[in-house]
Prior knowledge:
Layout lengths: L7 H16 L2 H21 L1 E2 L2 E2 L15 H4 L2 E4 L4 E4 L5 H6 L1 E4 L6 E6 L2 E5 L1 E4 L17 H15 L2
Antiparallel strand pairs: 1-2, 3-4, 5-8, 6-7
Amino acid sequence: MLTITLNSQDVECGLNQLLGNLRHRQPMMHGIAAELLSLTEDNFENESWGNEPWQPTHRGGKILQLSGQLAASIHTLATAQTAQIGTNKIYAAIHHIGGEIHAQNAPYLMIPLGNGRFARKQSVTIPARPYLPINAHGELQAGGATRILDVARDALAHGV
């Protein structure tokens, strides 16, 4: 014969902890923001968005890391309701979502070719190289949902 005994005091204690963690979500949101930052750092390191490699540049070297300022500018913010990640660099969006840049205040753009040489162009197309874990279409990168859900599940079950 198999007998299972359940102590309701243990269940109540666990449920109370779960409810407490659900009411006080800011630590969980800090954990999610940290995971978003970790995903972003992985993207810069692997020069990809999830498992999708970025289009290479003509200049060579690490993609999106000529000066390192873009990667260094990534910051997070967490409240009880939100976990955010972003940057304040004015050129960040064009690299993340891609697009075309046109000369506005001069007849040409000066595009560095390396070795002190430049090309003059009226416009240039920048391919999308999403570095944040969410692309321009609001899609989370491959593996991102699992990592964020793992943080949320752990925070709700055990606290952060």
